[in-house]
Write a structure and sequence with these properties.
The complex is a heterotrimer. By secondary structure, chain A is an all-alpha fold. Chain A has a single domain, classed as Orthogonal Bundle (ABC transporter involved in vitamin B12 uptake, BtuC), CATH 1.10.3470. Helices cover about 70% and strands about 0% of the residues of chain A. Chain A is globular, with a radius of gyration of 21 Å. In chain B, the strands form 6 sheets. Chain B has a 6-stranded mixed beta sheet, sandwiched between helices. In chain B, strands 18-21-22-15-23-24 form a 6-stranded mixed beta sheet, with helices on both faces. Chain B has a 4-stranded antiparallel beta sheet with strand order 2-1-4-5, covered by helices on one side. Chain B is globular, with a radius of gyration of 25 Å. Chain C is mainly alpha-helical. Chain C has one domain: ABC transporter involved in vitamin B12 uptake, BtuC (Orthogonal Bundle). Chain C contains 14 helices and 2 strands. In chain C, helix 2 runs parallel beside helix 13. The longest helix of chain C is centred in the N-terminal third of the chain and has 33 residues. The chains are: A mainly alpha, B alpha/beta, C mainly alpha. Chains B and C meet through strand 8 and helix 9 of B and helix 1, helix 2, helix 8, helix 9 and helix 10 of C.
Chain lengths: ~325, ~525, ~325
């Protein structure tokens, strides 16, 4: 109720102060990334050989793509927990429709896109029209999607994927040694960079996440922006799914498990704020890479596979704690 | 003679170099109702917060029952018997009246809470105050007026000997006001001291014993109520030297055709029969007390409230206003009252904030034309004299004055034909104020409609070519800029009848002409 | 303030005492009664249309199935009323179950110690959650998600399949009965009544509602909000521990997957039962109704041979619909 504003005298001043402010604002993730690379080099210099790097890119690509999709939703101020089960749904549907016959790839892709869009629509409508918190909506969607796909496939993956379909995740481009997965990832990263930083849409996403009330009073349709972000996330989920099963095949209905939490961890690590309004494509990408490097390190240290869950948990808690400490200090 | 229950000596308080209170001295006698008056911004709320320990004075002493006290936290003030009833209640809507009143001090029998005892104690408390509310009622189901009574009962049950009430009747219907005032009377008979802030002078004259008037953060006068009249109070509250802080008003020759025409507007069961115009070349000011509906009107004109009936025309064209996007598209901008909550996206940069409502104008196939954007933003920054190291700076780091300029710039970037300003210079220092005033006048002379809501009477008088006064959702008066005094406006806003009152340069001398 | 300027015209006319009483009674009844009517309605429809449903044996079965979920959901109710959330219960159940079963090692003399250890683990997990939320100021969703992931990693690294062995005698906890009603149900009822007493009659209960309703108001009234939240999480941990004990008694062993699904299901049961996700309002009896809804649905689906997956879908749909309805009504 104080009528008098307390003016902020912060960074309108010296260059040194500006520099210091700039440094503290750079996400720690890049330093972390460098450290991880050094650690891996120390353990296994062979990692940096071409075939090992290529394999790593193929395995990391799905998470990078999904993390970028999740970033859009987070920046707009919401959260999408359904993307993991969407990945499973997309893969299982593709396998069932293709049924080991490459002629069906087109149909399969169409169906996958439609399903992804449908999921995004439900997420968006329930969250913005019915004002259900997005974590509840997408958490329930997770359950529904998982259950639905299990019904459709009777509990086990049906049909089969053809080598053509898996080409995206598994092969290289033409005769060059460059993996398709790398090209796809670069395309997604570039596309998102452009979308988020150069278009009116991207601006509006940041505005909606930063202050939805002010955004609305600036003429922005908050519901539509959030809906579009959910759509981007779901489509990235579908794409990530294609990359994933391309690389590792479709063995069970668990392929997508945990991707929602991994993508959120990656984004948070990369400086995306859970409260919305802040985040960068490079940050999310770096976060995804860092997470994958951590998993690789755990493998090299011969720690059992499930242990990566523990590490993930510690990382999430650590990153959020650091974030809230930083915020309370500023 | 018994010492006063409360005494303030030399209280000073500043916020970041801006003085809110200076050299406040007065006494409050025990068991009286002591009113505190002054315009918005006179320092009443700040004073209250010092009394309850939410703020600490920079200088001066507060004496409670003759002893100096130094509250570091509101809980200390509460223990000392000082309780405050804010305008926003501090109640739990899903719990009962008794549960709310005894929150944190539940009555126990053994290890368990004794709900029955709490209900009985609450009923006794309420009966003693002649409040007819069932202790078992859920607070969220009660009407606002009843919730306020619960809030008061809660404060009293914590043995408040001094009760501070900040605009308690602001949202009450006349019957509820009566109920509240009789409660205050009963409390006084019990020996509770009440400090009562209100704009509604007629109410003060019903219950207060003494009144203190503040103006611009200083203490003007403290008098027993029987020694003053309403007119005296109004004069004390506003009479001041109108310095030449404002840009010259337009002459009648400069004023042209109507830009905005509002006819018979009814909004949401609150605003009734609003009709007015804003013409080319003029600044129209809207005055009124808090709660009179000014911001609501602004929001309605911006498409943020539901219009029941009425016509709005901009440059002769009828407007459909279903959403802010509609309003912006048709050429209306709105500088909101609370720039941090509704006006700016704080984590975003200056440039992006300025560009936000007009993104569609500077795009090609969805891509932002960054060059054009930079030029536009740079141009506006310069025109508005926006002082910032770089346009990439996040707006949360700016001073109030600069933040307000960013908000103004963003509407200018939309080529708005009418800009509504709600408290345009609230929380802004003198230098930036002058800057913004000059900008507003410039806009008007360039043919952009300027509608200004302000609670600062000098600003309204200094800036407006015409002044509209609102009260309880209706337009009750219109004055021409040159002809009006603060007293006249206040009188219209409070519903006080005014015989002839001469404006005086000295604060306290008033002459009443027969 | 803006709120003041936008306040609608005040409503007319006083309400009498009688009106106020109806409001109290009405409010209490509308929510809880509502959900119990739904339960009864479901039971009635099932009895009429599903052959085999309306037998004593089946009804007992339904309650039997509700015990574990009921125990966890009661714990979850505390946390949600306090404005928090516990997503770690599923992993907690699995972890506690495995450790406890291993401790029992098919020896009756170990039973008591193992049970004690289980309860202690529940308390410890709850304490850790509570501390992370209050000291590190991390929101409950992330905090309990984090602890869940940490535990999962350790759990799945150590155990792939069932582990430990529960002595035959202990199974009576799951399968034994008294007067035709399974022991588990008695345990559930006892815990239910205990929880009700805590919420309704203890200072902690009062403070829990306050903290969930408006943390700042509670704090300004002198309530130790941190302690209240930590204690609520401890109770949730205990709920998980009790559920784990019942489950291992039933399965005769522990496994890293026995808890799967209990996180979402318990939150769902609490929400369906009328507690607000935002905190400040709720009842354990409502939660019990929510649990019964889930159990009856599962029971009916089994009769109709609906696959487990379809049940998942329907549970998700019910959750969304219920939260949307409650959310919509709250905004009117």
């Amino acid at each position: 109720m104080s009528v008098i504003d307390t003016p902020y005298s912060a960074v309108e001043g010296s260059a040194l102060a500006k520099a210091r402010a700039a440094i503290t604002r750079v996400p720690v993730i890049y330093a972390v990334l460098v450290v991880l690379l050094i650690l891996i080099y120390w353990r296994t210099p062979a990692f940096f050989q071409m075939n090992s790097l290529v394999a790593f890119i193929r395995s990391a690509a799905p998470l990078i793509v999904v993390a970028i999709g999740q970033m859009f939703v987070l920046v707009s101020g919401e959260i999408d927990l359904s993307v993991g089960s969407l990945i499973t749904v997309a893969a299982a549907l593709a396998a069932k429709i293709i049924d080991s016959d490459s002629a069906n790839i087109g149909t399969a892709l169409l169906v996958v896109i439609v399903v992804a869009a449908g999921v995004a629509l439900i997420n968006a409508v329930v969250t913005t029209v019915f004002h259900v918190p997005s974590f509840a909506t997408t958490l329930a969607m997770l359950l529904i999607a998982q259950g639905a796909i299990s019904i459709v496939t009777n509990g086990a993956p049906q049909g089969g994927l053809t080598p053509e379909f898996r080409a995206l995740g598994r092969n290289n481009f033409a005769e060059t040694g460059i993996p398709n997965a790398l090209l796809v990832t670069i395309a997604v990263v570039l596309g998102s960079l452009i979308l988020l930083n150069f278009t009116t849409f991207g601006r509006r996403v940041y505005a909606v996440g930063g202050n939805a009330a002010a955004a609305r009073l600036s003429g922005i349709s908050v519901g539509r922006i959030k809906g579009a972000c959910f759509l981007i996330c779901s489509l990235c989920g579908a794409l990530g799914s294609i990359l994933l099963v391309g690389f590792s095949g479709m063995s069970s209905l668990n392929v997508g498990n945990g991707f929602e939490f991994q993508s959120i961890s990656a984004a948070v690590l990369g400086g995306v704020a859970l409260t919305g309004g802040r985040g960068s494509v490079f940050g999310a990408t770096a976060g995804a890479l860092a997470l994958q490097l951590v998993f690789r390190l755990l493998n090299l240290l011969s720690l059992p596979l499930p242990f990566r869950l523990t590490v993930q948990g510690l990382i999430i808690l650590g990153a959020v704690a650091v974030g809230s400490v930083r915020r309370s200090r500023s | 003679m018994t010492p006063p229950v409360l005494e303030l000596r030399g209280i000073h308080k500043s916020f970041s170099g801006v003085r809110a209170l200076g050299d406040i001295n007065f006494k409050v006698a025990a068991g009286t109702v002591h009113a505190l008056c002054g315009e918005n911004g006179a320092g009443k709320s700040t004073l209250l917060k010092i009394l309850v320990g939410a703020y600490r004075p920079d200088a001066g002493t507060l004496l409670l029952r003759g002893q100096p006290v130094n509250f570091r936290h509101p809980s200390e003030a509460q223990k000392a018997g000082l309780s405050i009833i804010y305008q926003e209640f501090n109640l739990l809507p899903d719990r009962t009246v008794a549960q709310n009143i005894f929150l944190g001090r539940e009555l126990k029998r053994g290890l368990l809470v004794d709900g029955g005892a709490m209900n009985r104690a609450t009923r006794d408390l309420l009966n003693g105050l002649a409040i007819q509310i069932d202790p078992r009622a859920i607070v969220g189901d009660l009407r606002v007026a009843q919730q306020q009574l619960v809030e008061i009962a809660k404060a009293l049950s914590q043995n408040a000997e001094i009760l501070l009430m900040d605009e308690p009747t602001a949202s009450l219907a006349p019957r509820e006001v009566d109920a509240l005032l009789s409660l205050v009377e009963r409390l006084r008979k019990r020996g509770v001291t009440i400090i009562y802030i209100s704009h509604r002078l007629d109410e003060l004259f019903r219950i207060a014993d003494a009144v203190t008037v503040l103006k611009d953060g200083t203490h003007v006068a403290t008098r027993p109520l029987h020694e003053v009249t309403q007119q005296d109070l109004v004069a004390l509250m506003v009479g001041r030297e109108l310095s030449k802080l404002y840009p010259p008003r337009s002459s009648s020759a400069d004023v042209g055709t109507p830009i905005l025409e509002v006819r018979d507007l009814y909004v949401s069961d609150w605003l009734k029969a609003i009709s007015f115009e804003v013409r080319r070349g003029e600044i129209v000011g809207i005055a009124g007390l808090e709660g009179s509906g000014r911001t609501f009107l602004a929001r309605a004109l911006f498409g943020a409230e539901k219009l029941n009936r009425g016509a709005i025309r901009l440059h002769g064209r009828p407007l459909t206003l279903r959403s802010p996007a509609d309003a912006i598209r048709q050429g209306i901008g709105f500088v909101t009252e609370d720039r941090k909550r509704e006006g700016l996206v704080l984590p975003m940069s200056i440039r992006r904030n300025i560009a936000l409502p007009s993104l569609a104008r500077r795009q090609r196939a969805g891509f932002i034309r960054r060059g054009t954007e930079r030029t536009t933003v740079r141009g506006l920054s310069n025109a508005l004299d926006l002082r910032a190291a770089s346009e990439s700076l996040e707006t949360q780091f700016l001073s109030g004055g600069n933040q307000q300029k960013v908000v103004l710039a963003k509407w200018l970037a939309t080529d708005a034909k009418l800009i509504i300003f709600d408290e345009p210079t609230r929380g802004i220092d003198v230098g930036a104020k002058a800057s913004i005033h000059a900008l507003m006048r410039d806009l008007a002379s360039r043919g952009i409609g300027v509608l200004m809501i302000s609670s600062e009477l000098p600003e309204i008088i200094g800036m407006s070519d015409r002044i509209l006064v609102m009260k309880h959702g209706e337009l009750v008066a219109e004055f021409a800029g040159g002809d009006v005094t603060e007293e006249l406006i206040m009188a219209a806003a409070t519903g006080t009848t005014v015989r002839e009152v001469k404006t005086s340069v000295q604060a306290s001398s008033v002459e009443e002409l027969p | 303030m803006s709120a003041l300027l936008n306040s609608p015209a005040p409503q007319p006319d006083a309400t009498s005492d009688a009106d106020n009483i109806t409001r109290i009674a009405g409010r209490f009844n509308l929510r809880s009664m509502g959900i119990y009517l739904v339960v009864l309605g479901m039971a009635l429809c099932a009895a009429l249309f599903v052959p085999g449903f309306a037998t004593a044996g089946n009804i007992v079965n339904i309650f039997q199935r509700s015990v574990a979920l009921g125990l966890v959901s009661i714990g979850q109710t505390f946390v949600i009323i306090g404005g928090s959330l516990d997503l770690s219960v599923a992993t907690a159940i699995s972890t506690i179950g495995v450790v406890s079963a291993i401790m029992m090692d098919n020896k009756t003399e170990n039973m008591a110690v193992a049970v004690g250890a289980a309860l202690l683990m529940g308390i410890a997990i709850g304490l850790v959650n509570g501390l992370i939320i209050t000291r590190l100021k991390i929101n409950a969703f992330i905090a309990t998600l984090g602890t869940s992931l940490i535990l999962q990693g350790i759990l799945f690294s150590g155990f792939d399949n069932y582990a430990g062995k529960v002595p035959r005698e202990f199974q009576s906890v799951a399968y034994g009965d008294l007067l035709g009603i399974p022991l588990g149900v008695y345990i559930l009822m006892a815990v239910l009544i205990g929880a009700w007493v805590i919420l309704r009659f203890t200072p902690f209960g009062y403070h829990l509602f306050a903290v969930g309703g408006n943390r700042e108001t509670a704090r300004l009234s002198g309530v130790r909000t941190d302690r209240v939240i930590i204690l609520a999480h401890i109770l949730s941990g205990l709920g998980a521990a009790l559920a784990a004990i019942i489950l291992i008694a039933r399965l005769r062993s522990g496994g890293p997957r026995i808890g799967i699904g209990y996180d979402l299901d318990s939150i769902g049961a609490v929400v369906v039962g009328g507690s607000l996700l935002s905190g400040g309002r709720g009842s354990v009896f409502g939660t019990l109704a929510g649990v019964l809804v889930v159990s009856i649905l599962a029971n009916v689906f089994n009769f109709l041979n609906v696959s487990a997956f379809a049940q998942d879908v329907l549970r998700g749909v019910v959750l969304i619909v219920v939260v949307a309805v409650y959310s919509y009504r709250a905004r009117r």
